[in-house]
Amino acid sequence: MNNTKRSINFVIAFMTVISLLSFVVPSLNLDALGQNIEIVFPNILFLLFVVVFSLIQFLYRAILTSKHYIKDKVFFSINMKKSKLYSRVISYIAIILLFMWPVIASKNLSSNITIGSMINLLVWIVIIEIIPFISYKYTKIYFMTDGILIRGMDFRIDIPLNPEIFNHSGFYPYYDIQQYSIHNNYLRLSLYNNSGVIEGYIPNERIKPIAAFLESKKIKFKKIN
C-alpha cells in the first residue's frame, strides 16, 4: 500500500472515529454516571481510538486488496516478519495519554490514579497485545503471478508519519521490487527508491522454490555477508 492510500486510510478512520465521538459524548448522562465517569469515559475513548480505529483500517485494507486476491494466481504464501515496536507504540501512546489526562488536568495524582483505573489500563494493555498477535498470525505474504500481495486480518494501526513501507497490507507489482535477500530463513524484498521493504519468514523447504520464482521475475539477489 503506497503512502497515498495509507493517508486515505488514516483520514477515513480518524474522521469516522471523531464523528462517532461527537454523537456518543453528547448522549451521555454525565450526572447519572457520577464517579463512574472516570472509568466509562476513558473506556469510550479507548474503544473508539484503538478498537474502532483499527477495525476501520482493517476494512479499508480488506476492500483494497480483495481485487488482487485470486486463488488461482497464488504460488506461495509465507508469514510476515513481526515488528513488535511498530505495531504497539501508537496504541500505547494513546492509552497512556488518555489514562494520564485526568492527572495532568487536575494536577492531583492521588485522586485520579485508583485501583479501578489501573485495572482498566491493564485490560487495555492486554487488548493491545492481542491486536498485533491476530494481525501477524492471520496476515500473509502471497506470491502472485503479477506481484506480492500482503493480505489478511490486519488490524494494525497505521499512522503514516513514516514514509517507508514495512509489511503494509497492499499489492506490490514485481517491477516495484528491486532486489531480494534471504538470511536465517528471513526473506527481505527491497522496493525501488528506498521506499521500503517486505520481510517474511520462509521454511527451509521453500527457500529454493521461492528464490527460483523471484529470479524468474527478474528480481536480483543481494548477498548478505
TrEMBL record:
Transmembrane segments: 7-28, 40-64, 85-104, 110-134
Record's keyword annotation contains Membrane: yes
Keyword Membrane: yes
Keywords: Membrane, Transmembrane, Transmembrane helix
Name the record gives this protein: DUF5673 domain-containing protein
Species of provenance: Paramaledivibacter caminithermalis (strain DSM 15212 / CIP 107654 / DViRD3)
High-level lineage: Bacteria, Bacillati, Bacillota, Clostridia, Peptostreptococcales
